[in-house]
Design brief:
Radius of gyration: 31 Å
Number of helices: 1
Order of helices and strands: H
Low-confidence stretches: none
Mean pLDDT: 81
Distance between the termini: 107 Å
Number of strands: 0
Amino acid sequence: MDQGTDTKSPPTNRSEVIEKRMAMLAALFDKLNEEASAEQQIVKENNKESFLQREGIKFKIRQAVAGIFFHRVE
């Protein structure tokens, strides 16, 4: 009766397998963290650009309104 034993693989210590898997998970989490940080930086830059664009539009509107209200009629 086969109980799923692998006779071709060299014997490994259970703690070694766990350590390797933990190292792989740590590497994966590091990579995901780097990607998330890069994505957050892009979002932050986009938000800053959007803010500056909105402020630019508001400034133009204020200039137009000021021009209407403070225009001298001769």
